[in-house]
Amino acid sequence: LGQSLVQRQRLMEDVWDPTTGEQFSSIQCEPMENFLAVLSPDGDLVVTCSRRGKFLVFKMMTGETVYESEPTTRFYYSLDYSPDGKYIAVGSNEGIVYLYDTETYQLIGSGHTMSIRGLTFSNDSKLLFTGSEDKNVKVWEIGSFPDVVDSFYGHLSFVTDIAVSPNPEVFASASSDHTVKIWELSERRCIQTLADHISHVWSANFNYDGTRLLSVSDDESMNFYLAKPC
């Protein structure tokens, strides 16, 4: 919706209106700081993951707990809500993708061989893209999860983030090998490697129409690129 912003603080989740700067909700959280937070597509729910390995869902306006998992020893690195609102995906240090059905919060798990640093859903919510410390990107079909549709190889170090373009054929992966790679899904190939950073790249994101790509790095720079068409 673009109408709410979640700020993570120790013991609290603060929700703000980014257009006015007004805080309109503050939610009491875990006694260990929350590492990840995301809003549901309709803006009604806040999903958080804590360092205690707990997965929690709150009503944004009231702070009422909708779902709370049992604490575990795992650590969550990545979190996303599907655009259709039906699924929540969480990536863990175990290399496992946890996929929750938002009607029942039934859990399905599958994964990589190492920690999952980044994940995101396709814009139509049919695919899930995951990137791992095993240097690979995997694509999962939600309807047949946990079956893997495809795997993409080419990074020389951890995959830290995944960005899906509005063009359903294109996605990008950021890596601690200092690069961002742009991939063509149907052809199963890398169509461009962006190697302008000199340190770990932690984040990549397309703009609304897929014509621009932003990358953020430990080298204290943000790079903007014209996205190359397929």
TrEMBL record:
Q: Name the keywords, alphabetized.
A: Repeat, WD repeat
Q: What is this protein called?
A: WD repeat-containing protein 61
Q: Which organism is it from?
A: Trichinella pseudospiralis
Residue ranges of domain Anaphase-promoting complex subunit 4-like WD40 in the record: 39-109
Lineage: superkingdom: Eukaryota
Q: Could you tell me which Pfam families the record lists for this protein?
A: ANAPC4_WD40, WD40
Q: Which GO terms describe its cellular component?
A: Cdc73/Paf1 complex
**Family matches, as InterPro entries:** Apc4-like_WD40_dom (IPR024977), Quinoprotein_ADH-like_sf (IPR011047), SKI8 (IPR051510), WD40/YVTN_repeat-like_dom_sf (IPR015943), WD40_PAC1 (IPR020472), WD40_repeat_CS (IPR019775), WD40_rpt (IPR001680)
